[in-house]
Amino acid sequence: MDMFLEQLPQQLVNGITLGGVYALIAIGYSMVYGILSMLNFAHGEVYMIGGFTGWWVLHLLYRENALAMNAVAVIALMVVFAMAVSGILGVLIERVAYRPLRHAPRINLLLSALGVSIFLQNFVLTFQGAKVRSFPVAALVPESLRVIQLGPVVFSFMRVLVIVVCFCLMAGLSIMIKSTKLGKAMRATAQDVETAAFMGVDVDRIIMVVFFIGSALGGAASVLVGLLFTQVDYYAGFAAGLKGFTAAVLGGIGNLYGAMLGGFVLGLSEALAVTFFPAAYKDVVAFVILIAVLILRPWGLMGEKSPEKV
Amino acid sequence: MDEQPILELDGIDVFYGAIQVLYGIRITLNRGELVCLLGGNASGKSTTLKTILGSCRPKSGKIFLNGERIDTLPTKEIIRRGIAIVPENRRIFPRMSVGENLEMGAYLRKDRDRVRKDRQRILELFPRLAERIEQPGATLSGGEQQMLAMARALMSRPDVLLMDEPSMGLSPRLVDQQFDLIQAVNKQGTTIFMVEQNAGMALSIADRGYVLQTGSIVMADTAASLLCDPMMREAYLGGDAACGVVDP
Amino acid sequence: MNTTALSRDSVRHRNLMWLIAGCVVLAAAPHVMPNAYWMRIFCISGVYVMLALGLNVVAGFAGLLDLAYVAFFGVGGYTFALLSSEQFGIHLPFLLVLPAAALVSMVCGFALGATSVRLKGDYLAIVTLAFAQIFKLLLLNLDRPVNITGGVNGIYNFDMIRIFGLKIFTPAAYAYLIWGAALLAIVGSVRIKSSRYGRGWQAIREDELAAAATGVNTAWMKLTAFAGGAMVAGAAGAIFASFQDSVFPNNFDFQQLVMVYCMVILGGMGNVPGVVAGAVLLTILPEFLREYGAYRMMSYGVILVMLMVLRPKGLLSSIPFLQKSRTRPDKETTGRLQASTDLYYRKQRREKSTSTYQKGDKPLLVLEGVSRRFGGITAISGLDLTLFEREILSVIGPNGAGKTTLFNLISGIIPPSQGRILLNGADITGHRPDQVVRAGVARTFQNLRLFNGMSVRDNTRVGRFCRTRSGPLSILFNLPRHRKEERETMERTREILHLFGARLTGYRFDQDAGSLSYANRRRVEIARAMATGAKILLLDEPAAGMNPQETDEITEFILTLRDRYGYTILLIEHKLGLVRTISDRVVVLDSGGKITEGHYRDVAKNPQVIEAYLGTRHQ
Questions:
Q1: In this complex, which of B19, B41, B218 lies closest to C337 when CB atoms are compared?
Q2: What are phi and psi for residue A243, nearest 5 degrees?
Q3: Which of A8, C258, C501, C561 has the most CB atoms less than 10 A away?
Q4: Do C549 and B234 touch (CB under 8 A)?
């Protein structure tokens, strides 16, 4: 118990960092679900490819000895590239695999999503191999900045950065959804697609935007995870996807703020659970939470419990 | 050019896959008129509206709005050119405030000052909505939702207002209110094209009516003569409507 | 009647021919295989046929996206491995191990189903995916502290299997064993598909809520689908383990699952011959593309997407004899105004259009202080209501008054927060929808909830589900009891549909419900409710969307239901003409409470009713 208390502040910091990342992934699921009522199975893979993009940018800069650049600039470059690639990939997936099925039974849409996910995963496996790619982060941050000691808690520079980036992205998104015209059109489309179209909203465009934003946030999350844990591989999307989805469901799927809340709750639970369970079963924690939520409170922490329309 | 109809459907054929659902539909609307399209379920009424709005494409035939051909334009452009709709079951955005619902009505308009003035004017017309401007749409009563759907449609300053089954699923009292509202809006100069099953009620306020059956227009006349037509009375009006008495 | 009996015989005849032809081909096949390599593929394809057919029960028939399916294959494989190897030193005979593997797997399927039976679509998919992942983690990690699964190294060197002293070790012997089992799976699939179970599953796939409200015990049916699929997978797993003489965790991983899904989808979900063909095709095809092995999984992904986008009913659905017979669209082409064609009948009907029937005075359905809250909103508060035997009671009231909630409460779709509901004096509060139907209350829906992809006949036959008893065993063995029930179901269905005259019989019998006209769909919904054998019908806006002529017809029909067949009817309706004509009594609801009740004449004069509902023009 003493050890637990001793570790608590540190695990809280770890949990919040992890939670921010999960929240970013969860937003992608939740936004798509809100507008199409579908589970975007391929989101995990989009996330993974975002991570690879980030790794690739860093790797190129590293090879060109360009890391002397400001670390913040390098990371910004990684995040922006990853977001762009993931975002465009998300839009492409929607166009090719989901849009033709918009009026098809749900199970078909899910299977199509599953197909995309399998394709992307094996695409990366085939052309990148199963090798784990590591991020040469150490070369990025000057020694003096690497850790910040605050009482018993050690903040690494990366953790602070990750938290800051997460919060900026989430705040930006919230403001966008709340007050811009595009944001309002997105909400209107999520609430009633047909009527939104009759107001003159170009629904196809809104859906594209939603996929772009959701996927881009996933890509950003992937880079952040890469910076934290210094690696990415072709299989990274599976676990991350499941966790992002867990966070989204935990918060109440379709609800943006719920997704954020769910991310942090999940991140904290995982960080705390690590002190109790052997590491091999770490992922089981998320699965158990997911199963428990779905069975006990499927509408989530912030979702509305709506009786089925009869 | 005053004689030019504001909206004209010229020989519209629509297919769902291999099945033809509309057969050579011809409908004209003149400025300021209130015209209704009557017919039972699956007669093609909704398809007609969807075709006007561009979410169904006619295989042949043309649609003109103010003399401009619109049947090849995307929905957004059709709306921009002056068509608005009050959808079936009103369909207001439940988790957006009354104000935001109105904003969505003016989504395509760029003239911000005029939009503000229109909003003012419309809120004066519906003071109940002004009181509830911050409330989410879902919390409004049935009657208020009706007003909001109408107000939202008017926010786009439409040349033609389409109404899809305004009486559907409403209690008799709300139906009366709804038709009073439609009549009032029409009196203020908005051209209205209304699709309705409740033929008696619709004809009692309309200028003219068309009757659609399994995809073809089978009758077209003034409301007064339709009300008195024996076939019409037998098939659509039942015993409920009074011939010759057009309710003011 | 003769024609259907004939066609049924010819179907049976055709199926038998196929079966015999299949047996002959399969019996000959092991002897014409060019080499050991192709023999192996022949055997493996039989295993995949079994696997795909098992998945077809869960995903195809019942429409449940079960992503843990491959785990049951693994459970079967590992059960066999543990019970006939040196791992624990247990060496049981194969004829005991095979059923044990199937049974263990079935129990696991049951357990998975029990935890996730309330989940739908996407949620079910993700939970089962999580379960599959946990299963794989267990396989990989349960070599410590006690070595159970052998970890990554798996388990190998199994006992040779003997069946009645017959040693099975040559590839040809395995081929007979495997394809024999596959053949059983095929026959079983075909039988169960056209039974009450098959129809129940299909109903759930089409519309779960409507299935429940038609008397299908949806939770149980979903469980049986999970368990049935798992059982087949378990048996396949045991046979596969023995054939391979080893089991490894990656025999049962996500890639296998994807491949089996591809097989089922390629063949068309629910389409038994299609799925068999899909399984064989996808086992053989990759063998021709060996040099492109690296692209294999990638291409499965592409196949999935392309099938869903281009041919969602499966590639094989385009082969004519595997296809469901095409249906004609339901277009009325007669008459200038529809009325004119029916004018004569309508005149006739009008003569007797007022009922002289007296309602009984035995209270049949009683609501005592029933309330229902959603969050902070009270939809129904303290409602008392009595429905007498053979009464027609109409519920009217403004939108949001709680009329549909009332129906949902009575039919068990939502439980009341307070109060009791009594049927014939027995408390049915909190019963499930299917229990309520079996107790004798069936309903229709305001927005029409038919099983659109099923024929008019099958929609109605689903109604008989709660009155039939045959279990999986009597269906699989085609026992006399099952045959008798099927016959009775058919007769009753035909009887009920004939009540609607030419509207629902003749060629419409086999037409998909979704292709019918609106008014006909309303009629099928009533027929389906009647088929449940319920004596109380709850009709939610039966005349909505009907023109005056059709409204008159349905009015007449509702009266007949009561006068001639003794039904008791509770209905919601906005069409006051109908309400006025047929109601013995009218109940007016507003904001969840009863304003008044009584004869229409008196109710219509009540000032509160006028204020809340009628408005001044309808006094």
A1: B218
A2: -70, -40
A3: C258
A4: yes
Q: How many domains are contained in chain B?
A: 1
Same domain membership, residue C129 and residue C155 = yes
**Around Cβ C372, how many Cβ atoms within 10 Å?**
23
pTM of the shown model = 0.85
With CB atoms and an 8 Å threshold, state whether A245 touches C126: yes
In a domain, C335, yes or no: no
Tell me what pLDDT residue C254 has: 85
Looking at residue A150, what is its pLDDT?
Answer: 75
Q: Do A110 and C121 touch (CB under 8 A)?
A: yes
Domain limits for position C553: 362-440+534-619
CA atoms of A164 and C519, how far apart (whole Å): 60
- Tens digit of pLDDT for each residue in A22-50? 999 999 999 999 888 888 989 999 999 99
Which is it for strands C418-423 and C363-374: parallel, antiparallel or unpaired? antiparallel
Question: Which region among B106-120, B173-187, C329-343 has the lowest average model confidence (pLDDT)?
Answer: C329-343
pLDDT of residue B248: 37
Confidence grade of residue B115 (pLDDT, cut at 50, 70, 90): very high
Assigned domain for A258 exists: no
Interface of C with A in 85-104 (CB under 8 A): none
Range of the domain at B89: 32-57+82-237
Domain count, chain C: 3
d(CA C270, CA C453): 12
The chain-wide mean pLDDT, for chain C, equals: 86
Q: Which amino acid is at A207?
A: I
Identify which has the larger pLDDT, A139 or C515. Answer: C515
Which residue, of C252, C280, C299, is where some domain finishes? C252
C511 and C542 belong to one structural domain: no
Please give the residue that has the higher pLDDT: either B92 or A141. Answer: B92
Contacting residues of B for A200, CB less than 8 Å apart: 75-76, 79-80, 107-108, 156
Does C136 share its domain with C200? Answer: yes
- Average confidence (pLDDT) over C148-158: 88
User: Of chain C residues 208-237, which have a CB less than 8 A from chain A?
Assistant: 209
Contact A110 C125 (CB under 8 A): yes
Beta-carbon separation of C301 and A105 below 8 A = no
The alpha carbon of residue B187 is apart from the nearest alpha carbon of chain A, in Å, by 24
Q: Where are the beta strands (DSSP E) in C439-575?
A: 441-443, 536-540, 568-572
Residue C570's pLDDT is what? Answer: 96
B167 interaction partners in chain C (CB closer than 8 Å): none
Query: Residue A99 belongs to what domain range?
Result: 21-245
Structure confidence at residue A255 (pLDDT): 86
Pairs of CB atoms within 8 A across A/C: 134
Among chain B, residues having any CB pair with chain A shorter than 8 Å are: 53, 55, 74-76, 79-80, 84-85, 87, 91-96, 100, 103-105, 107-108, 152, 156
Instruction: Show Cβ contacts of residue C89 under 8 Å, excluding neighbours closer than 6 positions.
Output: none
Would you say residue B118 lies in a domain?
Answer: yes
Q: Do C337 and B234 touch (CB under 8 A)?
A: yes
Q: Which chains touch C (3 or more CB pairs under 8 A)?
A: A, B
**In chain B, which residues have their Cβ closer than 8 Å to the Cβ of C612?**
173
Asked if residue C194 and residue C225 are part of one domain, the reply reads yes
What is the count of structural domains for chain A? Answer: 1
Residue A121 has pLDDT above 60, yes or no: yes
| Yes or no, beta carbons of B231 and C329 under 8 Å apart | no
Cα of C369 vs its chain's centroid, Å: 35
Instruction: Enumerate neighbours of B (3 or more CB pairs within 8 A).
Output: A, C
Whichever domain contains C603, its CATH number is: 3.40.50.300
C145 Cβ contact partners less than 8 Å away, ≥ 6 residues apart:
none
Residue C258 and residue C348: Cα distance in Å, rounded? 62
**Contacts with A, C 570-609, CB within 8 Å:** none
Q: Does A12 touch chain B (CB under 8 A)?
A: no
Shared domain for C88 and C191, answered yes or no, is yes
Residues A165-184 have pLDDT tens digits of: 999 999 999 999 999 999 99
Q: Does the residue B97 lie in any domain?
A: yes
3-state secondary structure of C90: strand
Among C395, C439, C413, residue whose Cα is nearest residue C571: C395
Confidence category of residue C2, pLDDT binned at 50, 70, 90:
very low
What's the pLDDT tens digit per position in A88-117?
999 999 999 999 998 888 888 888 999 999
Decide if B5 is inside a domain.
Answer: no
Backbone angles phi, psi at B16, to 5 degrees: -105, 105
